Amino acid sequence: MTTTIRPAEAHDLPAIRALQTCLPEPASDLFDSLPPGVTLVSTADGVAVGYIHAFTGDAAFATEVAVAPAHRREGRARGLFQTLFVHLRRAGCRSVTLTVKPGNEQARELYEDLGFAVAERVPGYFEDGGDALRMRRPL
């Protein structure tokens, strides 16, 4: 199996939208077209099986990351983040933030391993009323 991480293209949008169904609260209109910022896909034999998106700025914001269940535990999310960091530095970003549910231990462990630290708790952040942890990482 050939694995590649590359910038997303318009033809990846159907696969990205399908991958969004793996998320508990996806941004439903985020991928009506390719949004501004950086969107990367992780492919298996040419097919997008994971993606990450971040809005750029001095402090970038990683909005979504998803990997198809059949391709989890292959290091794809880690690879997507590491490639994202390179793209964000090139875009002049100095840090990146993300939000995560406090009980999502698996995701938090990955983020902490990638250098993210909890910056604050955001009450009622998610649509279900749940709190979020905002995590930040310098670039």
Structural overview:
The structure is a single chain. This protein is α+β, with helices and mostly antiparallel strands and about 140 residues long. The chain has a single domain, classed as Aminopeptidase (3-Layer(aba) Sandwich), CATH 3.40.630. The chain contains 3 helices and 7 strands; from the N terminus they run E-H-E-E-E-H-E-H-E-E. It has a 7-stranded mixed beta sheet with strand order 1-2-3-4-5-7-6, sandwiched between helices. Helix 2 links the parallel strand 4 and strand 5. The radius of gyration is 14 Å and the shape is globular. The model has no long low-confidence stretch (mean pLDDT about 95).
Comma- or semicolon-separated keywords:
single chain, 139 residues, alpha+beta, Aminopeptidase, seven-stranded mixed sheet, 3 helices, 7 strands, globular
Lay out the secondary structure.
Elements: E1 3-7, H1 13-20, E2 38-44, E3 47-55, E4 59-67, H2 76-90, E5 95-100, H3 105-113, E6 117-122, E7 132-138
Parallel strand pairs: 4-5
Antiparallel strand pairs: 1-2, 2-3, 3-4, 5-7, 6-7
Distance between the termini: 31 Å
**Approximately what portion of the residues adopt beta-strand conformation?**
35-45%
Task: Give the uncertain stretches in residue-range form.
Answer: none
- List the secondary-structure elements in sequence, H or E: EHEEEHEHEE
**What is the overall silhouette?**
globular
Q: In total, how many domains does the architecture comprise?
A: 1
Helical proportion?
10-25%
Strand order of the largest sheet: 1-2-3-4-5-7-6
CATH superfamily: Gcn5-related N-acetyltransferase (GNAT)
CATH architecture annotation name: 3-Layer(aba) Sandwich
